[in-house]
Amino acid sequence: MDARTNSLPRYVLTLTELAQITGEPAARLRKRISDDGLIDMGGRGFGVRPEAVRAELSRRGVSYDFGILAHINLKGGVGKTTSTITIATRAAQYGFRTCVLDLDSQASASMAFDSLPEEDEPIFYDIWAKPADMLPGSLKKIDDHLWLLPSSLENGLLDASLTNPKHQKRAVRGVCEQLKHEGFDLVLIDCPPSLGTAVISSICAANVIVIPVAGDPFSFKGLDLTLGEIEAICETYSLPHPIVKVLFSRYDRREKLAAQTIEKLAGPYANYAVPVHIRVTTEFSKSLARGETVFAHARKSSAREDYDALVRHLLGIDR
Ligand SMILES: Nc1ncnc2c1ncn2[C@@H]1O[C@H](COP(=O)(O)OP(=O)(O)OP(=O)(O)O)[C@@H](O)[C@H]1O
Ligand SMILES: [Mg+2]
């Protein structure tokens, strides 16, 4: 890899992909997009910088209105972090100024982006009470249009320190409002698998809640508990209901449980079910081992295909 390639952003849409999405010939797009918006990928065609993608998609009516999307399931290991980081990188490619808010004290999202905070660097626990002063200096740049508020074990102390219900209601929302003020369009929250302060405060802030289910009975138990909590919290705090989306995050058509899961999603959970399932593939763990998501390369895979369809569904990007 030469030095020039090294300095390129990792998450860019290719000109070919943009042409497919917009239905406009690549040659015509190339003429309209300024040289600054294009990246010569040396024999692999052109990449389009997120800001130029944004200009093109805005022309076609894609809205970049501010949104807060939280991944919650009280059951662990269902794909919350995978979904958060994968959606984040694709959203950035689509031109959304995206910030990942890592609220899990296990810090899986921060680790996935190889961006754990240093000892003296602030995390949510340190900044929620004064986001205007502390947030800007606390964010880590991951890539063009992609930033992170990292997490560490100290976020586990939130349950002991953020006990006032009024503060719980405001804490995540306050940070997100500051992110909006800083120019972000999209906040993606990765929550821990427990009903603690971080989850309660995220439910109060989010306008969309994605609940991933892996297909096993335990993730449905977690789904029911999570739906119950959303209901109870909205009632307690007199909040409007967020949009809830249930995502089948590990679909393996060879498994008997998969058919039962699809049935449930088409039956009792039909109001919430996302019309896209994420198929099981080793692509996720392979990408993670490289410190990136499946959108770092344009190689075809079910992982890319499924998450791209999900992102377009969530962000209103039609083909
Ligand atoms: N579609 C998939 N195919 C294969 N593996 C997957 C898929 N989705 C997620 N995984 C893997 O499942 C594991 C758990 O996923 P992840 O860490 O995203 O879950 P989580 O809900 O965030 O867990 P926790 O509750 O512990 O934070 C990871 O190793 C991830 O790579
Ligand atoms: Mg996680």
Automatic annotation (TrEMBL):
Give the protein name, as stated in the record: ParA family protein
What is a single Pfam family found in this protein's UniProt entry? AAA_31
Q: Which organism is it from?
A: Sulfidibacter corallicola
Which InterPro entries does this UniProt record tie to the protein? Answer: AAA_dom, DNA_Partitioning_ATPase, P-loop_NTPase
Per the database record, which ranges form the AAA domain? 68-236
Organismal lineage: Bacteria, Pseudomonadati, Acidobacteriota, Holophagae, Acanthopleuribacterales
